[in-house]
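Quick note —
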Amino acid sequence: MSVKLNRPALAYAKVLINNGRAVVDERDVWSKHQPSAAVGNDFIDKHGWREYSRWHLGIDDAENPNTKGRYKFPYGDFTQVHRCGVLAAESRAGQYKYTDIEQAAAHLHGMLEGLKAGH
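Predicted structure written out below.
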C-alpha cells in the first residue's frame, strides 16, 4: 500500500478548524461520530469524489480514484472536524508508520486542543 499525505485535505481541515467547524469531543467516540457507509455514499452522490477526498488525510495511490478504498484516515463527518477522528487518524498512522500523516494529524490535534483551551 502506497499511502501518502493528502495535502489538500490537511489544508481544508485547518480552514475548518480556524472557522470553528470543529467538535472537541472525547477520544473514544469516533465509532459513534464517524459517518456510516450510507452517509458517505450520499455525500459522494451529492458532492463527488474530490470533495469526499478532502475529508481524508491519506490517499492510497494504488487504488482507483473513484473508490472509497483510495481514501484513508477520515477526520470528520462531512460538516465538521472531530477531535476523536483526528486522534484515531493520528494513532493509526503511527501504528502503520505513515509519519507524514501522523504528524499532520498531530498538528490538527494541537489546533483542536487550542480550541478546547479557549484560545
